[in-house]
Design brief:
This protein has 341 residues and is of the alpha/beta class. The protein contains nine helices and 15 strands. The strands form two sheets. Strands 3, 4, 5, 8, 9, 10, 11, 12 and 13 form a nine-stranded mixed beta sheet that branches. A six-stranded mixed beta sheet has the order 6-2-1-7-15-14, with helices on one face. Helix 1 packs parallel to helix 5, helix 1 crosses helix 8 and helix 2 packs across helix 8. The chain is elongated. The protein starts with a strand and ends with a helix. The structure holds flavin-adenine dinucleotide and 2-acetamido-2-deoxy-beta-D-glucopyranose (3 copies). One 2-acetamido-2-deoxy-beta-D-glucopyranose (NAG) binds next to loops. The site of one 2-acetamido-2-deoxy-beta-D-glucopyranose has 5 residues, from helix 5. It is an enzyme of class 1 (oxidoreductase). Keywords: FAD, Flavoprotein, Oxidoreductase, Peroxisome, Signal.
Length: 341
C-alpha cells in the first residue's frame, strides 16, 4: 500500500537519480519530481559527463570514494547491457597529464576506475609540454541521452513529473509527507544556504570524430572528452559568475588551450558553445531536517551541492538520500498515514 507522498524538488541529474532510487527502493512511497527546468536545460546538459571525481574539501574521503564506487558500479552494469545505447553510457579511456608532478601520483579513486597506471616515457612523448601522466579507463554519460533515460525509468516506476518553480517548501506542506531538496544552485535562493555558490563553466561542442581518447590537464582547466556525435572542449571556472550566457572571447581561449594539448584540434569546426553553473559547496549537503513554521511541520531531506562532480557521485548520493527518506518514514505523524489506510 502506498502511503507516503514524496516530492523531489529539482529535475536535474541529482533530482532524477534520487527519484529513481526512492521509487525503486521504497515501494511504499509515491514520488513526484517538481522542477523549474528539465533536460536539455539543466546543468548536467552542459557537462561532458565523465566520471573523474573532484575531491570535496569537507566530505570524508572514504565516503566520497564509496559514492564514486557505487556510481561507477551502477554505470558499469548499464554500459555492459543492452540499454547502453539508449542510456548514452559507455567506457572511455584516455590520459590525464600534468605540467608539474602532482602531490599524489595515485588519486583516491585510482582503484575504482579500470586499469589505472602511470604513463610511460613513450606515452608522455605525445605531450611535450607535460612531465607526468596517468592513464585509465572510466565511464561517461552522454547527458542528452542519459537524463531523458533516467526520466523514463522514473516514469516507468510510476513516478510523476511536474514543471513548476517552487518559491517556498511550505507550498508543498499538506500535499506531500517528505520533501527532498535537489535544487543544486537553486538552494541558495530557495533556502538561503550561503555555502553553495556558482562556478560558471563554459564548454564548446566541436566536430572531431577522429579523437577517441579523453585528454585532461591535471589542473582541471583544459579537457577534451569525445562523445557520441561531438567532442566537448573545456573549460573555465568562474567563481560567483551567475551568467548562463557563453562568452565569445572565452571560446577562442578554450580552442587555443585545447589545441596546445591536442594539435589536431587547430581549426576544428565548432557546433555549439554552452555554459552552466556548477553548484559548488565545501561538502555535498546530504542530511535530513524537520522544518517548523507557524505550528506546521515538514520533513526534508537535502541532496545538493555536487559542484564539479555530479556525474561522478550521483548514484552514491541518491542512495544515501534514499536511506534518509526511509529513516523519516516511521517519524511521520501516524495521523498522516492512518487517514489513508
Ligand atoms: C561545464 C561543466 C562541465 C561539467 N563536467 C562534469 C563532468 O565531466 N563530470 C562530472 O561529474 N560533473 C561535471 N559537471 C558537474 C555536473 O554537471 C553537476 O555537478 C550536476 O549537473 C549537478 O546536478 P544537479 O541536479 O544538482 O543540478 P542542476 O542540473 O542545476 O539541477 C537543479 C534543478 O533544480 C531545479 N530548481 C532549482 N531551484 C528550483 C526551485 N526553486 N523550484 C523548482 N525547481 C528548482 C532547476 O530547474 C534544475 O532542474 C560539469 C559542470 C559544468 C558546468
Ligand atoms: C528548454 O528551454 C527552451 C528555451 O527556453 C524551451 O523552449 C523548452 O521548452 C525547454 N525544455 C524543457 C524540457 O523544459
Ligand atoms: C547524433 O546524430 C544523429 C544523426 O544526426 C541523431 O539522430 C542523434 O539523435 C544524435 N545523438 C545524440 C546523442 O546527439
Ligand atoms: C526546496 C526545499 O526543500 N527547500 C528547503 C530546503 O531546506 C530549507 C531548510 O534548511 C528550507 O527552508 C527550504 O525551503
Amino acid at each position: 500500500m502506498k502511503t507516503v507522498r514524496v516530492a523531489v524538488i529539482g529535475g536535474g541529474l541529482v533530482g532524477l537519480s534520487t527519484a529513481v532510487c526512492i521509487s525503486e527502493a521504497l515501494p511504499q512511497c509515491t514520488v513526484t519530481v517538481i522542477s523549474e527546468k528539465f533536460s536539455p536545460n539543466t546543468t548536467g546538459d552542459v557537462a561532458a559527463g565523465c566520471l573523474i571525481p573532484h575531491a570535496f574539501e569537507e566530505t570524508p574521503i572514504q565516503e566520497q570514494k564509496y559514492w564514486f564506487r557505487q556510481t561507477f558500479d551502477f554505470l558499469f552494469n548499464i554500459a555492459n547491457s543492452a540499454e547502453a545505447a539508449e542510456a548514452g553510457v559507455g567506457f572511455l579511456s584516455g590520459w590525464q597529464v600534468y605540467k608539474a608532478q602532482p602531490e599524489e601520483h595515485f588519486p583516491f579513486w585510482w582503484d575504482v576506475v579500470l586499469g589505472f597506471r602511470l604513463m610511460t616515457e613513450n606515452e608522455m612523448a605525445k605531450f611535450p609540454h607535460h612531465r607526468f601522466g596517468q592513464t585509465f579507463t572510466t565511464l561517461k554519460c552522454q547527458s542528452g541521452l542519459y537524463l531523458p533515460w533516467m526520466e523514463k525509468r522514473f516514469k516507468n516506476n510510476g513516478g510523476d513529473v511536474i514543471t513548476k518553480k517552487i518559491d517556498s517548501i511550505w507550498q508543498l506542506n499538506g500535499k506531500y509527507d517528505i520533501v527532498v531538496n535537489c535544487t543544486g544552485i537553486g538552494s541558495r535562493e530557495l533556502i538561503g544556504d550561503p555555502l553553495v555558490y556558482p562556478v560558471k563553466g563554459q564548454v564548446l561542442k566541436v566536430h572531431a570524430p577522429w579523437l577517441k581518447h579523453f585528454i585532461r590537464d591535471g589542473d582541471g582547466n583544459t579537457y577534451i572528452y569525445p562523445g557520441i556525435n561531438d567532442t566537448t572542449l573545456g573549460g573555465t571556472r568562474h567563481k560567483n559568475d551567475w551568467s548562463l550566457l557563453p562568452d565569445p572571447n572565452v571560446n577562442k581561449e578554450i580552442l587555443d588551450q585545447c589545441s596546445k594539448l591536442e594539435p589536431s584540434l587547430q581549426g576544428v569546426s565548432v557546433i555549439q558553445d554552452m555554459a552552466g553553473l556548477r553548484p559548488m559547496r565545501p561538502a555535498v549537503r546530504l542530511e535530513k531536517e524537520v522544518c517548523y513554521m507557524d505550528g506546521r511541520k515538514l520533513h526534508v531531506v537535502h541532496n545538493y551541492g555536487h559542484g564539479a562532480g555530479g556525474f561522478s557521485m550521483h548514484i552514491g548520493t541518491a542512495k544515501k538520500a534514499t536511506r534518509l527518506v526511509e529513516e523519516l518514514i516511521p517519524l511521520m505523524g501516524s495521523c498522516n498515514t492512518k487517514s489513508k489506510l
